[in-house]
Amino acid sequence: MSIWGRWTRYRRAQRARMDEFRARDLGFDENASHAAYGAPAAPGDSQDARPDTGPSAARSPEPDLLADALPLDTTEADTTGADSTGVDTGTRGAGTEPTPPGVAAPPALSAPSAPSDAPGDGKRGKGPRKDFGQSGTPFNRQSPFYIGFVGAIGVLTAYAVVQAVGRLGTVITLLVISFFLTLALNPLVEALTRRSVRRGWAVTIVFLGVLAVFTLVGWVVIPPVAQQGSELATNAPRMFDNLLANPWVQDVDHRYQLVQRIQEEVNKRVADGNLWAGVFGGVLDAGKVIASGVFSGLTVLVLTLYFLASLPAVKQAAYALVPASRRPRTVSLAEEVMRRVGSYAIGQVAVAAINAFFAWIMMSLIGLKFAAVLAVAVGFLGLVPMIGATLGASVVAIVAFFDEPKKALIVIIYFIVYQQIENYAVMPRIMQRTVAVPGAVTVVAALAGGALLGILGALLAIPFAAGALLLYEEVLVPRQRRH
């Protein structure tokens, strides 16, 4: 028997069982079942006139509309024959089977009528399906045309994705920064939630603390910078006269007429209209940069707030995409990576803050100008991996050298001693819970991150390298050992 024949018999048996269920449990009569399947009931056949065949009597299945609609050969599944009276009970078009002996014959079903031009004759279940001819062979997927066409579509799709990612570079950068700050602040939120504080209140407290820190930094940095800038603008002419009165400058000017050449060049530039256009354009560009920076900062703060508030839901939604068989291990690895990334960020901020605090004390003791501003600069530069502390020490030493050379010597000695204490006492205690990143990996990650995203990339490269190193140790190495 063919597969289609078996399927047809299975469908008929199913419909027969459904008819019996409707008649026994739902109270439907046979005419209602015929009407539900679109088959006409026999004239004069009603519930009162129909003979009672008893519960054990077999019920004839309804006509199979699927078999009637599809022009497929089901002769192997259908059997034709005649009962004891010589009446044919196996016609395929009627979709019926031979009636067992002693059972009343079902109502006669009319054979499908010939196709006509009347509307609705071609609908499924209302008449025979129109024959449109035999189907052709499937398209050859191994043909060069098919492979080339699909490959070209794939290349165009990849190019469109690359272009879209390139245009969304700024948005992606803001998202990465926000997610990194979320992972850095999430340990503080988790610490508050473990002390019976609701997550919403914990996020609010942590976020207000971050805003307070930035406000304090602005209050420390902005007023001295504004004051010194105003003093510089006021004293600039006097400082220029003092510079010209210097004997060394006068000697150089007497030999090369340096002052005269500078004055001629300045007058020439002032007379040229392009100078003012360039100055005006530079001011506009500076305004655009400042406005863009303020907007990006606000965007990062808002995204960080949303990510902190909905981080559990975001993680659960991401974990739901992982197959159930691999979900427990994936969840444990992801949680460990996020924990180590957040711990690394908090530890780096703590180390930079300690460096800035002690540097401010040292500069205040020796009487160095702009101690608070230089301390903030040392703290921010300390966030840069590998070279941040050295850059901060260099900036302070240069400022101290122009103030007084003895102060510069004291600054250099202090930072050399402090760097040793930080490397062997402060850093190991703070970073003991984070993953230890080898020096070579740190250098390569910092260089790669700096080449991709500048200072921001260098800041983000080390924690992401720590997460990648954890995956290497816990996933790749054990898998290679098993093979």
TrEMBL record:
Keywords: Cell membrane, Membrane, Transmembrane, Transmembrane helix, Transport. Residues 35-44, 63-80, 105-119 have a biased composition (Low complexity). It comes from the Bacteria. It is found in: Cell membrane. Residues 120-132 have a biased composition (Basic and acidic residues). The chain crosses the membrane at residues 145-162, 168-189, 201-222, 289-309, 344-366, 372-401, 408-427, 439-472. It is a multi-pass membrane protein. InterPro entries: AI-2E-like. Residues 34-137 are annotated as: Disordered. PANTHER family: PERMEASE PERM-RELATED (PTHR21716:SF53), TRANSMEMBRANE PROTEIN (PTHR21716). Belongs to the autoinducer-2 exporter (AI-2E) (TC 2.A.86) family. This is AI-2E family transporter. It comes from Terrabacter tumescens.
